[in-house]
Amino acid sequence: MSRLIIVCGPTGVGKTTHSIALATEIEAVRFSIDPWMQTLFAKDMATLDYDWMIERVHRCYDQIWKVSEQILSIRGNVVLDLGFTEKAQRERFAQPARAMGASPEVHYLDAPADVRRKRVDKRNLEKDPNVYSFDVDRMMFDFMEPRFEAPDEAELANGRRIDCG
Question: Which of 9, 32, 46, 125 is 20 to 30 Å from 69 at the Cα level?
């Protein structure tokens, strides 16, 4: 059976690192939102505007789902590292996957904010091309922090919570 894994967690928790390792482990195609947004829209963003940004994130989601659907239909595995700040964003992929007969798994990564801030600062400094797409400054970190909706028990029924602290 195909696997669709939805990786979520707050900024700096290690979603991309987890997704890279997981995709290798289960032989999956991995999609990560940061390079998509950086490549397609970063040059057009004048200021940090959540509404502007999320509208473009949703455009990427539409295209990523079209490709994911093809992969799942041929019994391939997909790992989605798309931020998934809100439950509705996760359900946007989980619902059609279930309709196809796939069983989506939510992997919820969590760590304290101070640990994540240090990781982000380190990532900004090192700029490792495997996990770095753009600098996340304190303003951006603080801006995103209250927007993250942790998955509830129902979402995690077929997934897992991973302590990354």
Answer: 9
